[in-house]
Amino acid sequence: MRTLLILILALSSVIARAQTYTGKVTAVKDGDTIEMLVNGKPLRIRLFGVDSPEKGQPFGEKARQYTSGLCFGKVVKARKESRDQYGRTVAEVYLPDGSSLNMQLVKAGFAWQYTQFSKSRDMAQAQTEAKAARKGLWLDAHPVAPWVWRKQRRSMTGR
Fold first, then answer.
1. Which residues are catalytic?
2. Residue 44: which of 17, 65, 23, 18 has the closest Cα?
3. How far, in Å, CA of 145 to CA of 106, rounded?
4. What are the φ/ψ torsions at residue 36 (nearest 5 degrees)?
5. Which of 57, 71, 55 is nearest to 22 (CA)?
6. C-alpha distances in Å from residue 139, one per residue of 36, 95, 105, 110, 113
7. Do strands 50-51 and 89-94 pair parallel, antiparallel, or not at all (unpaired)?
8. CATH code, 2-157
9. Cα–Cα distance between 76 and 21 in angstroms, integer?
């Protein structure tokens, strides 16, 4: 009985991770956060494995605009990876042509690979190539990763 319970729990974890959504992108909050309409309800998606510059950070608005140009108003698919501490669905998002929005952002230099979560060698290679070509945020001589920028802001505001 115990083995069956463990098997059920393991399978439910796999099924939860494999959950996919299809919907129209109705908002682009920033470079790595979108909102899509799924079955008539809004679903906020945080892109898995990438981190774009924040609002107010250099290239933050350009990252948001780039993301918007790729997906706003389009029907996309999102494959859920997890849920974050803010209740957002963390997902890989696929554009109508089948390409990964997450990967497109890294290739264009509008997001870092978030290595705390993503170990993708393809994404690491895309980031290396974007950096070498000085694309997007890599035009900056000393770009600051968003997780570093957020930590600096928190220490300045005491939050």
1. 46, 54, 88
2. 23
3. 13
4. -125, 150
5. 71
6. 31, 26, 15, 11, 17
7. unpaired
8. 2.40.50.90
9. 8
| Tokens 């990876």, located at residue | 81
- Residue 152, pLDDT above cutoff 90: no
Residue 2 has a CB neighbour count (10 Å cut-off) of 6
The 10 Å Cβ neighbour count of residue 58 is 16
How is the chain split into domains, by residue range? 2-157
Record the pTM: 0.85
User: What span, in angstroms and rounded, lies between the C-alpha atoms of 150 and 141?
Assistant: 19
Tens digit of pLDDT for each residue in 112-124?
Answer: 998 888 889 999 9
34 near 27, Cβ under 8 Å? Answer: yes
Residue 87 clears pLDDT 50, i.e. is over it:
yes
Cα–Cα dist 136/32, whole Å: 15
pLDDT reading at 10 higher than 90: no
Residue in 72, 64, 78 with CA at minimum distance from that of residue 32:
64
Instruction: Give the separation between CA 43 and CA 87, rounded to whole angstroms.
Output: 10
State pLDDT tens for residues 38-62. Answer: 999 999 999 999 999 999 999 999 9
Give the span between the Cα atoms of 46 and 42, in whole angstroms.
13
